[in-house]
Amino acid sequence: MNTDLLQRGKAIKLAVFDVDGVLTDGRLYFLEDGSEFKTFNTLDGQGIKMLMAAGVQTAIISGRKTPVVERRAKNLGIPHLYQGREDKLVVLDELLGQLNLSYEQVAYLGDDLPDLPVIRRVGLGMAVANAASFVREHAHGITTARGGEGAAREFCELILRAQGHLEAANAAYL
User: Fold this and answer.
1) pTM of this prediction?
2) Is residue 174 part of a domain?
3) Which residues are annotated as a binding site?
4) How many domains does the chain have?
5) Which of 9, 98, 117, 168 has a CA that sits 20 to 30 A from residue 90's CA?
6) What are φ and ψ of residue 141, in 5° steps?
7) Numbered residues of the known binding site for Mg(2+)
8) Which domain holds residue 112?
């Protein structure tokens, strides 16, 4: 495990996720009636729940807006949801003001150019394995899993491991 990533993960109080390409595989599915659907990975959802149970706050910031994401955030209990916002750093500034947190206390997982300003600014800025190459070049770390295929779980477990909570989170299921 990368010791720099673990060191960065120790300070994290807020984990923020992009949606398309991070919590999903990045494909957009449109039905004839104009509605859309997305698929989410249950491993990622469990990782997010484990992170919240360990006291780390969570948020979603997405450039797109869809009721499916609202439903997923509600199902997981993610309290901070921002959709239809390409200005992700501005959104994060607002949220940090509300939560009285600093950038160093934030971890962010993204995959494309709109995520890059946040990835470069926060304490732990990571990219999924299949992120745009320019984004991967500027991230602190890259998951081994692809977006929508367990990357968010890996990100959550890294933070849990860094803070000494992963073993207890797993042991709760033994």
Assistant:
1) 0.95
2) no
3) 18, 20, 111
4) 1
5) 9
6) -155, 165
7) 18, 111
8) 3-166
